[in-house]
Amino acid sequence: xxxxxxxxxxLITAGMGAGACLALGGSAIRLAAxxxxxxxxxxxxxxxxxxxLYGSAVLQRELTQDPAFAAVFPxxxxxxxxxxxxKWDHLRPTPTTWDFxxxxxxxxxxxxNQMKFRGHTxxxxxxxxxxxxxxxxxxxxxxxxxxxxxxxxxxxxxxxxSWDVVNEAIWPPDKRxxxxxxxxxxxNLGAGYIELAFRAAQQADPHALLTWNENWLEEETALGDxxxxxxxxxxxxxxxxxxxxxxIGLQSHLIGDHNNIAGPHFRQFLGQIQDMGLKILVTxxxxxxxxxxNDINTRDQSIANIYYEYxxxxxxxxxxxxxxxxxxxxxxxxxxxxNPRADKxxxxxxxxxxxxxxxPAWGAIAxxxxxxxxx
Length: 375
Fold this sequence. Notes:
By secondary structure, this protein is of the alpha/beta class. The protein has a single domain (42-371), classed as Alpha-Beta Barrel (TIM Barrel). 41% of the residues lie in helices and 16% in strands. The chain has 15 helices and 11 strands. The chain has helices spanning 3-13, 43-49, 60-65, 67-76, 88-91, 101-112, 132-135, 141-155, 184-189, 193-204, 222-240, 264-275, 296-315, 335-338, 360-371, and strands at 21-24, 27-30, 53-58, 79-82, 116-123, 162-167, 209-214, 247-250, 253-255, 279-288, 320-325. The chain has an 8-stranded parallel beta barrel, surrounded by 6 helices. The protein has a two-stranded antiparallel sheet with strand order 1-2. Helix 11 (222-240) links the parallel strand 7 (209-214) and strand 8. Helix 11 packs parallel to helix 12 (264-275). The longest helix is centred in the last third of the chain and has 20 residues, at 296-315. The protein is globular, with a radius of gyration of 20 Å. The two termini are 40 Å apart.
């Protein structure tokens, strides 16, 4: 598939040509020019028009080593989140030494480009440094956690739009009666580590939006139902005790051949979050390929359909304030390693292809913003 063909396909899908078909819920919808207005208006401008933010995860090296990528990123995004640079294994080479070089660079880049900056992530069971497992114990865990939150959040206090304070804390397959994931934090601090983290985060930066970020919330499955139920249960309990949780993050790593996303249980869940007075952010969206066919036209359209269907459902809820994709270009996507195709074809989960040409997914996101209610 040549870049020229890709661009012609995008122009049709984005509504600058004759129109393309988008199948949602068994029906076909035409993406005519009148339905994706604004021509090539950026995703951030389309989002801002509705009172929303659009942005992406990014790595420092992508912005410093790839001029084509570096030209598109600030044009399309008005909020950014470091993909790796604020995780424990990047910040803490030893228990007593720190490396803020990458995170500092990205924070400065965001300020220089008038972009909001997200923090990701303070409390997670993954991306921990090699020394961590042999170092943490019930005697030092609290000091380790509180010291980390104070040091990292304090360094960027006043510069961060929102922080993922707790990440992926619920996992029903671990068979705990409270639904919490079996993590080093839980084993060494007990279930109270979540409250501890949010209270410490509020002290460290009272201006950041404090977020609990979770995965696998969107599917109409037994796992999805269980995760949503446990999440609501924990949120109600913690909020009733004044724990400063202010938002939830929907990771939204979707699977292209799953047809059970954004159904009635998920929409009801979003309504429950709204009723609690919490904000909602789509924090890590991409569409993994699953068993989608190899043909690029078919595959790109299927992925675009998922983007549009999911974002249309989510953006209907007025508590949603931001949408971030986990990258903007297929050239830089974690799914190439974590979820490769069985046929070894390059994966295509993001709005731009490897040549920084916008794809049908771009048109789907644009149309979802254009059709979203204003905040």
